[in-house]
Amino acid sequence: MSTERSEQVIDTCCTTVHTLGRQNAKKEKSLRYMQKDGKFPVMFQQAPGDWTTYWVDIFTSLVEIRWRMMFLIFSLNNIVSWLLFGLCYWLIAHVNGDSDNADDDLCVSNVRDFTGAFLFSMETGATIGYGYRHVTENSIVAIILVTIQIVFSCILDTVVIGVVVAKMASARKRAQTVGFSRCAVVNLRDRVLCLSWRLGDFRGNHILEGVVSVQLIRYVKRPVGSIVITYQDLDIEEREIVLATPTTIIHKLEPGSPLYNMGPDDLMDNHFELVVSFTYTGDSTGILHQTRASYTSADIRWGQRFQDMLKMGKKHYKLDYSLFNVTTWVPVPFLSAEEYDRRGRPADGTTLLPIGKRNRHIAQVNLNISEEMILQTFL
């Protein structure tokens, strides 16, 4: 009888895993509310203000564009400004008749055609000052124009330096060195089912202060094609973190949690997404940064925990970041937290993690797991 019962449990578990695998594949192909790298796949159509909003905040617009576009824009600005001021110098020389005047009567020394005017404009704008071409006291208009070009060039250089420094110190670059784990796990902690994921700083310099926040995003597609999105905050332990070593963010599946009544099967049938963020201040620059990530039901691994990656040496703590995203199977009831609390303890014959593959990982059934092992705390 025991052998027949074991075979029935394994067959049922394998069928469940096969179904979950197909549902996972469908989930992964669906459009996410937020991508794994923290970007939102949102495209604006007929936004109010159109391009005027970018011109009003031109500095921010320049900081957000790509490097190659920024260099192209500033190169064109310099070249166009040199051409325009060169055209003005050539007009002054043409009106004054410098093409036929003696050298002592020229408005700009050694400028008799447009080529000479453009070269003088470039030397003035770039503050090269070769000395061969220079403005003379014969034309007050030329002197005023040189003054205007010098002021304009200083302003343009200031904007270029400011944009380059802002882009180099961009919070997005620092956010790439602080990251969340690729998946979230559900396991037992102090006899409570918990949803957890990892957060780590991949650089040596540590963060002064950081705050973690989590939102549950639900989106329902209406028959007319529109989508209704709702937001709900999740309670987590230790929101404020000093990230000296990787830490595990924990959300307890207790009464009041929107995931309290969801079991492994229910996760696959619900359209939701966990949007997690970590807002912190870099200790090197003092600039505020934010790292974001999201987890769908396909990214949640039921009955697993993260591998330990912190060890104590003689003089230092040793971190093995190759284990940052590595998980291992642990005995966890194949039940929702609500049902688990209602039963008080796993009932005899409760299905634990089955043999087979779930989320591309292999697990095995142990039908002789004791109650103490099931209620074990995994820290």
UniProtKB/TrEMBL annotation:
GO function terms (MF aspect): inward rectifier potassium channel activity
Annotated coiled-coil segments of the chain: none
Reactions performed catalytically: K(+)(in) = K(+)(out)
InterPro entries linked: Ig_E-set, IRK_C, K_chnl_inward-rec_Kir, K_chnl_inward-rec_Kir_cyto, Kir_TM
GO CC terms in record: monoatomic ion channel complex; plasma membrane
Location relative to the cell: Membrane
Keywords (A to Z) from UniProt: Ion channel, Ion transport, Membrane, Potassium, Potassium transport, Transmembrane, Transmembrane helix, Transport, Voltage-gated channel
Domain Inward rectifier potassium channel C-terminal: 179-342
Span of domain Potassium channel inwardly rectifying transmembrane: 34-170
Bilayer-crossing regions: 71-92, 140-166
Family: Belongs to the inward rectifier-type potassium channel (TC 1.A.2.1) family.
Alphabetical list of PANTHER family matching this protein: INWARD RECTIFIER POTASSIUM CHANNEL, INWARD RECTIFIER POTASSIUM CHANNEL 16
Protein's UniProt name: Potassium inwardly rectifying channel subfamily J member 16
